Hints:
Elements: H1 8-24, E1 34-38, E2 44-46, E3 62-64, E4 70-72, H2 81-90, E5 96-100, H3 103-111, H4 120-126, E6 132-133, H5 141-150, E7 156-159, E8 163-168, H6 171-193, H7 203-218
Parallel strand pairs: 6-7
Antiparallel strand pairs: 1-2, 1-5, 2-3, 3-4, 5-8, 7-8
Helix pairs in contact: 1-6, 2-5, 3-6, 4-6, 4-7
Zinc ion is lined by residues 32, 80, 99, 101, 138, 162-163.
Amino acid sequence: MADTTASPTTTRAAVLAAAKKMLAEGLVEGTSGNISGRLPDGLVCVTPSSVSYEAMRLEDLVVVGLDGTVVEGTRAPTTEKDLHLAALRRYPELGSVIHTHAVYATMFALAHEPIPAVIEEVVVYLGGDVPCCAYRGTGSVALGDEVADHLADRGATLLANHGLVTCAASPEKALHNAALVERTAKIVWGARAMGATIHPLPDSVNRDMAGVYSYLRGNP
Ligand SMILES: [Zn+2]
């Protein structure tokens, strides 16, 4: 189960901190991207629509039910909330979802090509290759379902012609996963640009480390 020991204030602060860090790390530009965090009472704190990350304050965050009903807040929730809520509804062990338009990851999303798990830490933190969802319209319920399908045994998935979604037990860990995906996409892109042959990890390593991912996801 998600961490329910943190107070709502702490979870909200973690969502806000991750939002600002996501911008600082260059994983988003402008007001694109969004973050959710599951509150101890089961409601979900999400970033608002169309508020800059520099100016964003705790009171700008919006609290919604798992069905998307706004429970608290004066702002409109992110228009992409369905992809967060679909994943949080389906996987009770998850505590946070992050969506970004990170450049290198999105290059793979344009190609509808998975980012290969050719670095050990990718398998440990993400469970394996980062798959790519079929194209569905931005903000649609169908995109949410597609994302949830792809996060069953993975900590990240690409959105075709759009961007990246990561998940974890907390906003801090979901942001770590987003940075890891972007770094890996950049490394794979660079290795290909070198004309290098990219060698896969041994099957036994993939199997063992995917087992570690599965255990850690179920026991956050
Ligand atoms: Zn988006």
